[in-house]
Design goal:
Layout (H helix, E strand, L loop, with lengths): L4 H13 L2 H17 L4 H11 L2 H11 L9 H11 L2 H11 L20 H14 L2 H4 L3 H4 L5 H14 L1 H14 L7 H12 L5
Length: 202
């Protein structure tokens, strides 16, 4: 199947442009590739994050349940469930993201739950920020990813301010640093400035 983001983009476009029969055949093929863990299965799962059908989602769910939660391989399957899952798939995501001791692979999955499971997203992201030393996430993609998703930041701020305001203040400081950089979208920067400046109404 090849590898890399180019192939993921190619498959995405091919599925989007294809007719119903061809689309189903391609999604079925990608699902079987993922279930059998054949060459390129992680690429297949990345494409399924957008194109997985309900029937194939159940197959991905059943496969995901066969992994130990500490196995990094489970993350690619959980990302599909995060993007496309329903309430009946949520518990497995919660077991992974909200476990008593933070999972070593936590950061690979947390974004997949937004915007499909917004409350789980903020709980998971806040758990990571609170339980991971500041020096490990300051100035990293953990903060920078919100520069293109102001709506997600608004949810995080509301939750984190009340859960652990000290961590929120550290996160806010990092965002303020990012706002001084020229390469972020100006509209998003304006919205982020508004969000972090708004008073806590809780």
């Amino acid at each position: 199947m090849g590898s890399g983001y180019d192939l993921i983009e190619h498959l995405d476009k091919a599925i989007t442009r294809s007719g119903q029969t061809e689309k189903k055949e391609t999604v079925d093929f990608l699902t079987q590739t993922a279930i059998r863990q054949e060459t390129g299965y992680e690429i297949a799962l990345a494409v399924l994050e957008k194109h997985c059908t309900p029937d194939n989602l159940e197959l991905i769910f059943e496969k995901a349940k066969t992994f130990d939660l500490a196995d990094q391989k489970i993350t690619a399957y959980l990302n599909v469930l995060g993007h496309k899952g329903k309430q009946e798939h949520r518990q497995l995501l919660e077991d992974f993201l909200l476990s008593k001791q933070i999972n070593d692979n936590h950061s690979f999955v947390q974004w997949s739950t937004y915007p499909n499971f917004p409350d789980l997203f903020v709980k998971a992201y806040s758990k990571y920020l609170i339980e991971t030393p500041y020096k490990e996430w300051t100035g990293s993609a953990i903060v920078q990813s919100f520069m293109s998703t102001p709506k997600a930041l608004e949810l995080l701020k509301e939750y984190l301010e009340n859960e652990n305001n000290k961590v929120w203040q550290n996160f806010k400081s990092d965002l303020q640093t990012e706002l001084t950089k020229d390469f972020w979208d100006k509209t998003n920067k304006t919205e982020i400035t508004r969000i972090i400046s708004a008073p806590n109404i809780a």
